Structure formats: C-alpha cells, structure tokens
Amino acid sequence: MNEKDSAARRTVKVSKYLSKHLRHQPERIGLTLDEAGWVEIDELIAACAAHGFRFTRDELNHVVAANDKKRFAIEGTRIRASQGHSVEVDLGLPPATPPPYLYHGTVGRCLDAIRAEGLRPMNRHDVHLSADRETATRVGARRGRPVVLSVDAGAMHRDGHVFHVSANEVWLTKAVPPQYLRFPERH
C-alpha cells in the first residue's frame, strides 16, 4: 500500500471513530457531551488516547476539513458531530423552509415497510433527507442497490411539519408519513 492510500485509510478510520463517539457512544470513552453535542477538543483527544486510539490535533483538523460530508464542526476549542446523533442533544438548529422536494436514499428491501409506515428516524433523532438525488443515491448505495424516494417537503411544510437543516446541509425532520413519499416505478 502506498503512502497516499495509507493516509486516506487513516483519515477514514479516525472519522469513523469520531462518529461513533461523538454521535452514539461518548460515554464508552468517558466523554460527556454538552446539551448541544459539543466537547472540548483536548478532552476528546485525551479520552481517545486513554482508550488506545491516538491521533494528533493536526490529524483531527484534517479529518474535519477533508470529510466530504462535513460530519463534524469545530467552534473555537470545541468539536461536535453535525447531525446523526442517537444520544440526546439539541443542535439548536432553527426551523427552516425546505425546497419543494427533498430526497431519501434507501434500498429495495426496505420499501414495503416505508410504504406502510413512511420514513422513521430509527435509532436517530430525525429522518435525514438530501437536497439532491445524487446525494440520496450515495446514501442508499451504502446498504446495497440504491432506491431514491422523493419527499414532497413543500406539502409537509404547509401541513405543519417542521424541518431543520444541519451545518452540512442535511435536511432533518421527525418523520415522513407515507402520503408525502413518491416511490419509483421500478426498483
């Protein structure tokens, strides 16, 4: 493996480790996130090192800057995950008016449940939606052959559903009832 591939793999490894502990299991390495999901960077680096996963501040800065999904935000001496938490946090995102349509990437084996129940947040706080089909396709492809659903976000908003948009431009809402979904003809 060349040096560039090794560095890229290391970046992914650090990113996944950070996601796990800043979104889902901070207590596992002794971290306590504040009510908005922030933690001091020095505290994070020390906690990770104490649990056998060492990285430098430079590596952390690179992971934050290089992440194409902008999963993390740094503010001063603090860091947090931009969205996707399963632990209780209030990201403090104001309500936002969505575009007329948003998109959700999934896989064919989930369609029957989605037709019956709509989109649910599962182990997260919100359903994640994309502003474009390409992003939704990439999201769905992580679990198999992607199927992209259109969400009539304009109608949902008019009907009183609340939307938020994260710092990395992921649209969030509590649930999407089935009547607001448009399914592809074939999958």
Which residues form runs of ≥5 with pLDDT under 50?
A: none
| Main sheet attributes: strand count, strand direction, barrel closure | 3 strands, antiparallel
Radius of gyration: 18 Å
CATH architecture label name of the largest domain: Alpha-Beta Barrel
GO biological process, one term: tRNA splicing, via endonucleolytic cleavage and ligation
Family: Belongs to the KptA/TPT1 family.
Function: Removes the 2'-phosphate from RNA via an intermediate in which the phosphate is ADP-ribosylated by NAD followed by a presumed transesterification to release the RNA and generate ADP-ribose 1''-2''-cyclic phosphate (APPR>P). May function as an ADP-ribosylase.
EC number: 2.7.1.-
Question: Would you summarize the structure shown here?
Answer:
With 187 residues, the protein is of the alpha+beta class. The protein is 34% helix and 17% strand. The chain has helices spanning 3-24, 41-50, 57-66, 111-117, 133-141, 153-158; strands spanning 39-40, 72-75, 78-81, 102-107, 127-129, 146-151, 164-165, 171-173, 181-182.
Task: Report on the architecture of this protein.
With 187 residues, the chain is of the alpha+beta class. The protein folds into two domains: 3-81, Orthogonal Bundle (Arc Repressor Mutant, subunit A); 102-182, Alpha-Beta Barrel (ADP-ribosylation fold), CATH 3.20.170.30. Helix content is 34%, strand content 17%. The chain has a three-stranded antiparallel sheet with strand order 1-3-2. Helix 1 (3-24) packs across helix 3 (57-66). The protein is globular.
